[in-house]
Amino acid sequence: MLSLSGVTKRFGGRTVLNDISLDIGAGEYVAVLGESGIGKSTLLNVIAGLEPVDGGTIRFQDSEVTRLGDDAATYLRRDNFGFVFQAFHVLPQLTVEQNVGLPLLLRGMKQQQISSRAKAAIASVGLAGREASSPRELSGGELQRVAIARALVGEPKLVLADEPTGNLDPDNARQVLDLFRAQVRTRGAAAILATHSEQAAAGCDRRYRLTAEGLSALR
């Protein structure tokens, strides 16, 4: 489903991603471990076509991401990718339902269909009854659940999660990761979890360590 071959990314004179190769199949849940600032977010950004690479290729299904123009990359992300971020990025001016339904709105779906699918996604993360709530009324763990529902509502083929529990206490972090793993597996999506936490990565099918030298598999 996703294949990286010799991917290199530099910022100024610094090599952030050094000859990265990785293959991920449908339904696989993969962790990329690394220290803060090592390049985990950059790796997710180049996979999503948000940043250009300086070398190598990235293929997602039949598309070579590294050759796509801005519009084509935008459509690829919109139709195939889901994102979960450490900072949630839940919009405070929208309700929970509106936040979750936003990816479907961007696809041009009808409002009735958006509402139905958003409510189902909200219920699946344990927030049924909070559809009309403002994000300001939710806890950090609840906001991350909203972010997971939003990432998965469009039934993406690939989910990219960037330190999704970095702002949560250990109990909420464990609950969110269990939920995320269950949702990804239920929907058959491939997922990459970028994290500095060995505990967060423990439930993944495969684990890799990202360093300045490159990406190496962990047992």
Can you walk me through this structure?
The protein has a six-stranded mixed beta sheet with strand order 6-7-8-3-9-10. The protein is of the alpha/beta class and 219 residues long. Helix 5 runs parallel beside helix 6. It has one domain (2-218): P-loop containing nucleotide triphosphate hydrolases (Rossmann fold, 3-Layer(aba) Sandwich). The model has no long low-confidence stretch (mean pLDDT 92). The two termini are 23 Å apart. The chain has helices at residues 40-47, 70-80, 96-106, 111-124, 140-152, 170-187, 198-201; strands at 2-11, 14-24, 29-33, 55-60, 63-64, 81-85, 158-162, 190-195, 206-211, 214-218. It is globular. It is 36% helix and 28% strand.
Give me a quick take on this structure:
36% of the residues lie in helices and 28% in strands.
Give the SSE layout.
Blueprint: E1 2-11, E2 14-24, E3 29-33, H1 40-47, E4 55-60, E5 63-64, H2 70-80, E6 81-85, H3 96-106, H4 111-124, H5 140-152, E7 158-162, H6 170-187, E8 190-195, H7 198-201, E9 206-211, E10 214-218
Helix pairs in contact: 3-4, 3-5, 4-5, 5-6
Comma- or semicolon-separated keywords:
10 strands; 219 residues; alpha/beta; globular; 7 helices; Rossmann fold
The helical percent reads 25-40%
| Rg for CA atoms | 17 Å
Oligomer: single chain
CATH architectural label: 3-Layer(aba) Sandwich
Strand coverage percent: 25-35%
For the record, the count of structural domains works out to 1
Number of strands: 10
Category by helix and strand content: alpha/beta
Specify the CATH homologous superfamily. P-loop containing nucleotide triphosphate hydrolases
Q: Give the CATH class.
A: Alpha Beta
CATH topology: Rossmann fold
Q: Low-confidence segments, ≥5 residues, pLDDT <50?
A: none
Shape: globular
